[in-house]
Design brief:
InterPro entries: IsoCit/isopropylmalate_DH_CS (IPR019818), IsoPropMal-DH-like_dom (IPR024084). The protein is α/β, with parallel strands linked by helices. It is built from eleven helices and twelve strands. The structure holds glycylglycylglycine.
Length: about 350
């Protein structure tokens, strides 16, 4: 390939982020694509060492990179003066407004679980209840969080969802493949202003996509359907907190959190991170499942391909497809880490992916 190297900023973060992100980097290095890796610090450990969970050098490097590969962060569940979640901050600082979490499960014929799940949760990533507007009143007896929903953010996330449904339909290729479908998820029957605005705007955007089916669902019903009838979904679009929760529910169908990758996309920047967190209970043991982080490597290559010249793009896409195939293979036959019922180490699963990808 003849292309300038792409710069990938690697932020392992906390806990198992430091074990699974090196695995993803090893997979990317094995492709021999022109990628240049730069590492930076962020997270709770970073805060404890240097008083800042997202040092400005890290933020500057993220702005300068072609893509960011992020591991996990372990923010405490109690207030700490001066601490803000670095991943929530990165998403907002880089305006990574679309968080896309694909879930895929295609069990072999005859498998009693057999139901084909192939869906994506598109989560608004910059506002909602994660806008950071929390305060305490009555001397600590009342705590208030403001939920921010704007026309601009709702419109652009709805567009991402409908474009994605269109692209997924095109990728299914077969003439008789069902049309794409976007399910707009909200709780507008109770949260009439905030969810009401999100719902109205998403339904307006739907009008511009007559080739994509649109329906709507209350978030509680959606949680039930994701648990019992996941095959009825194609693309789900929703607000920040709802998307965070629903995508974890959906992950159960894709082999659990150990296999769930995600993309955080904006107009200018892109960050890829496994859906799972820092998992302090298993951190340092060398047994974390690297497949979610490796799945992020494939999503990252898809993103670079979308920015590359046509020749380069097809070479990059070929590698992302090889990585995905290798992940599917290792998921099916092992070696499996303990979360999938095996006893393999992170390094063994990673080596198996690389070996399959290079065959
Ligand atoms: N890789 C996703 C991740 O780290 N998830 C946990 C998370 O988002 N935590 C928020 C935080 O700890 O600030």
């Amino acid at each position: 390939m003849s292309a300038p190297p792409f710069t990938i900023l690697v932020i392992p973060g906390d806990g198992i982020g430091r074990e699974v992100i090196p695995a993803a980097v090893a997979v990317l290095q094995a492709t021999n694509l022109p990628l240049q890796f730069v590492e930076a610090d962020a997270g709770w450990d970073c805060f404890q060492r240097c008083g800042d969970a997202l040092p400005h050098e890290t933020l500057d490097a993220a702005r300068a990179a072609d893509a960011v590969l992020f591991g996990a962060v372990a923010s405490p569940s109690y207030p700490v003066a001066g601490y803000r979640s670095p991943i929530v901050r990165l998403r907002r600082e880089l305006d990574l407004y679309a968080n896309i979490r694909p879930v895929f499960d295609d069990p072999p014929p005859g498998d009693p679980r057999a139901r084909r799940v192939d869906l994506a949760v598109v989560r608004e990533n910059t506002e909602g209840l994660y806008a950071g507007r929390e305060r305490v009143e009555d001397g600590g007896a009342t705590a208030i969080a403001e939920r921010v929903i704007t026309r601009r953010a709702s419109e652009r996330i709805a567009r991402v969802a409908f474009e994605l449904a269109r692209a997924r339909r095109a990728a299914r290729r077969a003439d008789d493949a069902p049309p794409g479908r976007v399910t707009i998820v909200h709780k507008a029957n109770v949260l009439r202003e905030t969810c009401g605005l999100f719902r109205t705007i998403a339904l307006d955007v739907a009008q511009a996509y007559p080739d994509v089916q649109a329906d709507e669902m209350l978030v509680d019903a959606c949680a039930l359907h994701l648990a019992t009838r996941p095959e009825r979904f194609d693309v789900i679009v929703t607000t920040n907190l709802f998307g965070d929760i629903l995508s974890d529910v959906a992950c159960a169908w894709g082999g659990g959190l150990g296999l769930a990758p995600s993309a955080n996309l904006g107009e200018r920047h892109a960050l890829f991170e496994p859906v799972h967190g820092a998992a302090p209970d298993i951190a340092g043991k060398g047994i974390a499942n690297p497949l979610a982080a490796i799945g992020c490597a494939a999503l990252l290559l898809d993103h670079l391909a979308s920015r590359a010249s046509p020749d380069t793009a097809s070479a990059i896409r070929a590698w992302s497809e090889r990585i995905r195939r290798a992940v599917r293979h290792v998921r099916a036959v092992g070696p499996h880490t303990p979360d999938l019922g095996g006893d393999a180490a992170t390094s063994e699963t990673t080596a198996a992916v690389i070996a399959h990808m290079l065959t």
